[in-house]
UniProtKB/TrEMBL annotation:
PROSITE patterns the UniProt entry points to: WD_REPEATS_2 (PS50082)
Taxonomic classification: Eukaryota, Viridiplantae, Streptophyta, Embryophyta, Tracheophyta
GO cellular component, one term: Cul4-RING E3 ubiquitin ligase complex
InterPro entries xref list: DHU1 (IPR046377), DHU1_N (IPR048514), LRR_dom_sf (IPR032675), WD40/YVTN_repeat-like_dom_sf (IPR015943), WD40_repeat_dom_sf (IPR036322), WD40_rpt (IPR001680)
Entry keywords, A to Z: WD repeat
Keyword Glycoprotein belongs to the record: no
Species assigned in the record: Ensete ventricosum
Name of the protein in its database record: DWD hypersensitive to UV-B 1 N-terminal domain-containing protein
Gene Ontology biological process terms from the UniProt entry: cellular response to UV-B
One Pfam family cited in the UniProt record for this chain: DHU1_N
DWD hypersensitive to UV-B 1 N-terminal domain boundaries: 50-257, 376-419
Ranges of the WD repeats in the UniProt entry: 643-680
C-alpha cells in the first residue's frame, strides 16, 4: 500500500505505508510543510481518493472507520461480489458527515449496490440532524438501518417515523417510543425489529398504513399488552408472514425454529420446518444471516447494559421509567407455551373427538404433535401480550395470512384449532355476530326493507325482511364497536361553574350516574368534597366543600322517586342526605350544611358502602365490620343493626332494583348472601361461596342475575332466585391478594365490565356466554405513570358507554374519571386518556 503526495515544487513523493497508519500520515502532512493538492491510494479504489479529497477541501481529518468501509467495498468489487457499503454511525462525528456526503454524492452511488447504516455500541457522539442528512444522501441505496439504541436520536427517529425511509430492514431495538406512529412511507421495508423497546405500549391508529412489503416483525420484551388494538394495527400489514412477541432461545430471526423438529401436516403434505425455507432476518442470503449471529449474541450479553442506558433517556413524552416492564405474576406463563386444555380432547375440523373414540389416528397424532410442540417450546423475552389467555389462538385467527408466530410455524390443523378456540372464548362482533358488518351495509338493508329503493335499483335479488328498530340500533352499534379498535376516551376531572371562573381539579374516589337524568353524575372526592356535574357539558351543577378533617367519600346513592336527593357516606362514618337543588352551583369554601343537607343520620363507623331501596323508604350501610345498619329515610332514624351477617367485614351491600325488601351482601369471608327483610336476618335466603374474598356485587337491571366479583379477577354471574352459578368469566389472575376486582353491567344486562385495582385494563364480556368482546387499556402520559382501575360503571342510558375511575401513582396521588365511548374511534387528541398522577389502590367500597 502506498501513499503519494504531490508537492508543488517537486516530483511526487511515494511512501509505502500500511493502511493502519494512513490516518496518521495524513494528519502529519502539515508538519512536513507539504502543500497538499491530492491524496490517494496507489492502485486502490477511487472511493478513498474522493473521500480524502473531500476531507482536504473541507479541512476535516479523515475517519479511519470510513476508510475501512471503503476498503471493504473495493475488496468486494475485486472479487465480483455485491458491493455493500457498511457505515458505523457510532464511529462518526458530525464533522465526518459533510465529506462523506460529498463523496457519496459525487459518484451518485452508482458503483455501490446497497448501503447499511449500523450502530455497534452506545458510545455515540453523532447528532440527529447529521444522521438525517446521511440518510437522505444514501436514500436510494439504503438497505439496512440498525439503531441499537435510538434514544440518542429521538428527533431523528420521530422524523423517520413521520416521513418514512427507503430501507429494507429497520432495526430499532431499545427505542424510546411509547406509542408507535410509523405513518411515513416505508414502501421497501420487509423487516422491522422493535425488540427490547421497553417503553412501547401501543400503536397510533394510523400506524403501519404504508408498509406494503413488511413480512417480518419482531417485538420481544416490549410493553404491548392489548390483543384487540394490536391485531387491528397489524391487520393493515397485508404481507406480514412472520411475527413474534417472544423468541425461541436459539433463534435470532423471526423465521421458524430450525431445532424444533416439528413436522406439520398442511393439507395432504408434510413438510419439515427449516431455516432454509425462510429468508434470514437481515436479508435473503444465508451467508448474511450467519454473519449476523455473533452480533446478536453480543447484543444479548449486553442487554442489561443497554436497558440501563435506555432508562436514562426520556421517551417522546418526557418521563423515564424505573419499572420498565409491567410483568405478570411469577406463576404466569406465556400463552404460547401452554397447550390448550379441553379435557384431553383433540379438536379436528371444528369438532371435538375423544381419544377413546375411533378417530383417524393420523389426525390425532398430528393434534398431539401440535400440542406437544407448543408445550415443549421454550420462549424468552416475552411481551405482556404473551401472558394473555389464548393469545396465540387470538393472533392466528385475527391474522389469517400469518405463517410463523414466535418462531413456531402455523399449520392448517393449528389454524383450525385456533379458530374454534377463538369462537369459544371471544366475540368477533357484539351480540354474537359471526362477522363484522359495515354501517353502510346496515343502512342500505334498512332502506331496502323500508321500500325506499325501487326493485329496479338492484339487479340482485335480496330477501325481504323488516328489521325492528331495536334490532336495527343494535346492529348499528355492533358495527361501530367492531370498527373502533381504539375507543374514544375523555377525561373529566376539571370543572368550572361559568366561563369566567378558574377551573378546579378534583380527586374523585366514588361516583354514580343519575338514575333518571342522563346528563347528571355525582362524585365524592378523597378530600371529602361532594360534586354534581353535567358530564355531557362538563359544567358544575352542585358543589359542597369538605368540612373539618378531610374524609374520603366512599358511599353514594341517588334516590329513585326523589331525583334531586342523594345519600353520601364518608370513611369516618358520617351519613347525610343532600338535595342537589339546594347545593351552590359554583366553587365555594363555605360549607352550606343548613341549606343542602336535609338529614344527618347516625354514624356507621368505618363505612364503605350505602344503598337505597327501590321505593326510597330505607337505605343500608356496611363497612369494616360484620354488621349492616338499616336506616329509615323519612324519619332519619337508624332502625336496626343486623349483627354478624358474615364472619368478616362486609364490603358492599345492595338492594334489588324492584324488590324493596330484598338485598345482598358481599364479604371478605368468601360468601355472597341474599337476604329478605320480611324474613328477618337470622337466616339468609341462600349463600353462594367464592374461592376468594368478595369485593363487589350488583343486581342486573331486571333483578334476574347477581354479579359477584372476588379478589383477583374471580367474576361470576349467579341466578338471583337461588344463587346457582350461571356464568363464570374466564379471566386470568395475577396472584396478588390485593388485586381488588369490581364488575358492573353494561347495555342493560347484555355485557359486564370488570377491572381491578392493580391492573390498567377493563375487560368487556358477554354476560350470557362469558365470551370476551374487547379490552380497554388505560395509558399514563409518562413512562413512569402506571394507571389502575379504582371503580367503574356502565352508562345506564347509552349502549357501549361507560365511565372509569382511574387511579395511578407518580408523583402524587391523583385520580380522574374517564368516559369511554366504544362506538367512536380515538383519532385525535389521543393523549387525553390520562391525567397527571396516581392513587393508591384500595379495596374499600364499590
Amino acid at each position: 500500500m502506498s501513499l503519494c503526495y504531490l508537492h508543488s515544487d517537486s516530483l511526487p513523493l511515494v511512501v509505502d505505508l500500511p493502511s493502519c497508519v494512513i490516518y496518521a500520515a495524513f494528519t502529519s502532512v502539515s508538519c512536513f510543510r507539504f502543500h497538499l493538492l491530492k491524496v490517494f491510494y496507489v492502485g486502490f479504489s477511487c472511493f478513498v481518493l474522493r473521500y480524502l479529497d473531500a476531507c482536504h477541501k473541507l479541512e476535516v481529518l479523515p475517519n479511519s472507520s470510513i476508510l475501512s468501509s471503503f476498503s471493504k467495498v473495493k475488496h468486494q468489487k475485486a472479487h465480483f461480489e455485491q458491493c455493500h457499503l457498511e457505515i458505523f454511525i457510532d464511529h462518526l462525528m458530525s464533522s465526518d458527515i459533510p465529506p462523506l456526503i460529498d463523496t457519496l454524492s459525487e459518484i451518485s452511488l452508482s458503483d455501490i449496490n446497497a448501503v447499511d447504516l449500523c450502530q455497534k455500541s452506545s458510545n455515540v457522539v453523532l447528532d440527529g440532524e447529521s444522521l438525517l442528512l446521511l440518510l437522505s444522501a444514501v436514500n436510494q441505496k439504503l438497505r439496512v438501518v440498525d439503531l441499537i439504541n435510538s434514544s440518542f436520536w429521538k428527533d431523528a427517529l420521530r422524523d423517520i417515523c413521520q416521513r418514512g425511509t427507503t430501507c429494507q430492514i429497520l432495526n430499532l431495538r431499545f427505542s424510546p417510543i411509547r406509542k408507535l406512529n410509523m405513518i411515513g412511507k416505508f414502501m421497501q421495508l420487509h423487516t422491522l425489529n422493535l425488540d427490547f423497546s421497553v417503553h412501547l405500549i401501543s400503536f397510533h391508529i394510523s400506524c403501519f398504513s404504508c408498509m406494503p412489503k413488511l413480512m417480518r416483525l419482531s417485538m420481544c420484551e416490549t410493553r404491548v399488552a392489548n390483543l384487540w388494538m394490536t391485531s387491528a394495527a397489524l391487520s393493515k400489514l397485508c404481507s406480514l408472514a412472520e411475527l413474534r412477541f417472544q423468541n425461541c432461545l436459539c433463534c435470532y430471526d423471526t423465521g421458524p425454529c430450525p431445532t424444533s423438529g416439528r413436522i406439520i401436516r398442511q393439507g395432504n403434505e408434510k413438510f419439515c420446518s427449516s431455516k432454509q425455507q425462510f429468508s434470514s432476518y437481515y436479508g435473503t442470503s444465508e451467508e448474511l444471516s450467519e454473519e449476523s449471529d455473533p452480533e446478536f449474541s453480543s447484543d444479548i450479553q449486553g442487554i442489561d447494559n443497554m436497558r440501563n442506558i435506555s432508562d436514562t433517556f426520556s421517551e417522546f413524552d418526557g418521563q423515564s421509567n424505573s419499572n420498565i416492564l409491567l410483568r405478570p405474576s411469577e406463576h404466569s406463563t406465556p400463552s404460547s407455551v401452554l397447550s390448550p386444555n379441553h379435557n384431553d380432547n383433540i379438536l379436528i375440523d371444528d369438532m371435538f373427538f375423544s381419544k377413546d373414540e375411533g378417530s383417524s389416528s393420523g389426525m390425532l397424532n398430528a393434534g398431539r404433535a401440535t400440542r406437544m410442540s407448543l408445550k415443549n417450546h421454550i420462549s424468552s423475552h416475552p411481551s405482556p401480550i404473551c401472558f394473555e389467555k389464548y393469545y396465540r389462538e387470538f393472533i392466528i385467527t385475527s391474522l389469517p395470512r400469518l405463517r410463523v408466530l414466535d418462531n413456531l410455524p402455523i399449520g392448517s390443523l393449528e389454524r383450525q384449532e385456533a379458530k374454534a378456540i377463538f369462537n369459544r372464548y371471544f366475540e368477533c362482533a357484539p351480540y354474537n355476530r359471526q362477522y363484522k358488518d359495515s354501517v353502510i351495509n346496515i343502512l342500505q338493508r334498512r332502506e331496502i326493507s323500508s321500500g325506499i329503493f325501487s326493485m329496479k335499483a338492484s339487479k340482485v335479488k335480496q330477501p325481504y325482511f323488516r328489521e325492528s328498530n331495536h334490532s336495527f340500533l343494535r346492529s348499528l352499534s355492533a358495527s361501530k364497536v367492531s370498527s373502533s379498535p381504539r375507543p374514544h376516551l375523555q377525561s373529566i376531572f376539571k370543572f368550572r361553574s361559568c366561563s369566567n371562573e378558574e377551573t378546579k381539579s378534583f380527586r374523585p374516589r366514588q361516583f354514580e350516574y343519575h338514575p333518571t337524568d342522563p346528563r347528571l353524575m355525582v362524585f365524592g372526592t378523597l378530600d371529602g368534597e361532594l360534586v354534581v356535574i353535567n358530564h355531557e357539558s362538563e359544567k358544575l351543577v352542585g358543589y359542597l366543600p369538605s368540612v373539618g378533617a378531610l374524609n374520603s367519600i366512599l358511599g353514594l346513592c341517588w334516590l329513585k322517586k326523589h331525583p334531586s336527593k342523594l345519600i353520601a357516606g364518608s370513611d369516618n362514618g358520617s351519613l347525610q342526605m343532600y338535595d342537589v337543588c339546594q347545593m351552590p352551583s359554583k366553587l365555594t369554601d363555605r360549607f352550606c350544611t343548613m341549606d343542602a343537607s336535609m338529614h344527618t343520620f347516625d354514624d356507621f363507623e368505618q363505612l364503605t358502602s350505602v344503598h337505597v331501596n327501590s321505593n326510597d323508604e330505607y337505605f343500608l350501610a356496611s363497612g369494616f365490620s360484620n354488621h349492616v345498619a338499616l336506616y329509615d329515610i323519612g324519619s332519619g332514624r337508624r332502625l336496626q343493626i343486623f349483627k354478624d351477617l358474615h364472619k368478616e367485614h362486609i364490603n358492599v351491600v345492595k338492594f334489588a332494583h324492584h324488590s324493596p325488601t330484598v338485598f345482598a351482601t358481599a364479604s371478605f369471608d368468601k360468601d355472597v348472601k341474599m337476604w329478605d327483610l320480611r324474613q328477618g336476618t337470622s337466616q339468609p335466603c341462600y349463600t353462594a361461596p367464592s374461592s376468594r374474598g368478595n369485593v363487589m356485587l350488583c343486581f342486573s337491571p331486571d333483578d334476574y342475575y347477581l354479579l359477584a366479583s372476588a379478589i383477583d379477577n374471580e367474576v361470576k354471574q349467579l341466578l338471583a332466585v337461588d344463587g346457582r352459578l350461571h356464568t363464570s368469566y374466564d379471566i386470568s389472575s395475577t396472584g396478588s391478594a390485593q388485586n381488588y376486582t369490581r364488575s358492573y353491567y353494561m347495555n342493560g344486562r347484555d355485557y359486564i365490565i370488570t377491572g381491578s385495582c392493580e391492573e390498567h385494563v377493563v375487560r368487556i364480556c358477554c354476560a350470557q356466554t362469558g365470551r370476551r368482546l374487547k379490552d380497554v387499556y388505560l395509558e399514563g402520559r409518562g413512562s413512569k405513570t402506571s394507571m389502575f382501575i379504582q371503580s367503574l360503571r356502565g352508562d345506564p342510558f347509552r349502549d357501549f358507554h361507560m365511565s372509569i375511575l382511574a387511579a395511578y401513582w407518580h408523583p402524587f396521588t391523583k385520580s380522574e374519571i374517564i368516559k369511554v365511548n366504544l362506538l367512536q374511534t380515538e383519532e385525535c387528541n389521543e393523549e387525553n386518556t390520562s391525567g397527571q398522577c396516581a392513587l393508591a389502590s384500595s379495596g374499600l367500597g364499590g
